[in-house]
Design goal:
about 160 residues; single chain; alpha+beta; two-stranded parallel sheet; Znf_CCHC_sf; two-stranded antiparallel sheet
């Protein structure tokens, strides 16, 4: 058990107690002294030691058997993963979504959720015809040529929340 004591109060604490005393660390000022940092570290280590005695230790194999990972796909055979450059939240340098599928980790040119014939090509993002861009397009908008079984990031999040 740890008692945190304000240094201006309780100077005459019972000497027979086996409770460790620490001065209250003043967090309202800029900076922390080495002595205060050391005390904070000691309190943290003691708390960690006590917590590990209370909470039963679960090995990785035990934990793995209790929680089965969900494997999620954004479209047919396209795994949502960092290694696949296809994920639903900002990660690393990718702070913006793909303009087409709204997943993070890739751009329109290498979108894994587009049908392969439309990747790396010079296609209009409005009508999906070649050799012009959206600013010059006079054609009617067409449905985005996603892979089969495409799921938007919103659908994936809803699935995780409500299933």
């Amino acid at each position: 058990m740890i008692t945190v004591i304000d240094k201006d109060k309780d100077k005459d604490k019972d000497k027979d107690s086996d409770v460790e005393d620490f001065e209250l660390i003043n967090c309202n000022r800029a900076g922390i002294s080495y002595r205060e940092l050391k005390q904070l570290h000691n309190v943290s280590m003691l708390a960690l030691s006590n917590v590990t005695k209370i909470i039963p230790y679960l090995s990785l194999s035990t934990f793995s058997s209790l929680v089965s990972p969900r494997i999620l796909y954004s479209s047919k055979d396209v795994l949502i993963s960092v290694t696949n450059n296809n994920w639903i939240i900002p990660y690393n340098q990718y702070k913006e979504t793909c303009k087409i599928c709204k997943y993070f980790g890739h751009s329109v040119k290498n979108c894994p959720n587009l049908k392969s014939q439309y990747r790396w090509g010079n296609y209009c993002l409005r009508c999906w015809k070649p050799r012009h861009n959206i600013s010059e397009c006079k054609n009617e908008p067409e449905v985005v040529p996603f892979n089969e079984e495409f799921h938007s990031p919103e659908e994936i999040v809803n699935f995780l929340i409500y299933k």
